[in-house]
């Protein structure tokens, strides 16, 4: 990721995504982006929230409207992504989430 792309991502995260997450999760303490995919009409994100919920969100590239598609427990997400190897994966994403604190 280039520095310019990273700055654009952080700007979008700070202005659009984090305020939305705070509406959905009033006690938001941490949010860590696990996945970001740029599509033609929207950006697709997967966030680990408060070290326990995995939140799927789409942000329109046309008007910044937000559509959240699902919320899974961290265990269900890890099983979905890694099958039988989910215990190790779950520990890794929890460790990562602890480094991204929302103030």
Automatic annotation (TrEMBL):
<protein>
    <submittedName>
        <fullName>Uncharacterized protein</fullName>
    </submittedName>
</protein>
């Amino acid at each position: 990721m280039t520095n310019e792309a990273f700055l654009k991502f952080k700007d979008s995260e700070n202005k659009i995504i984090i305020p939305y997450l705070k509406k959905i999760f009033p006690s938001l303490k941490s949010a860590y982006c696990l996945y970001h995919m740029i599509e033609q009409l929207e950006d697709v994100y997967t966030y680990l929230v408060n070290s326990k919920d995995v939140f799927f969100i789409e942000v329109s590239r046309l008007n910044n409207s937000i559509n959240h598609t699902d919320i899974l427990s961290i265990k269900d997400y890890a099983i979905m992504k890694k099958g039988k190897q989910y215990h190790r994966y779950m520990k890794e994403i929890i460790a990562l989430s602890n480094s991204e604190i929302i103030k």
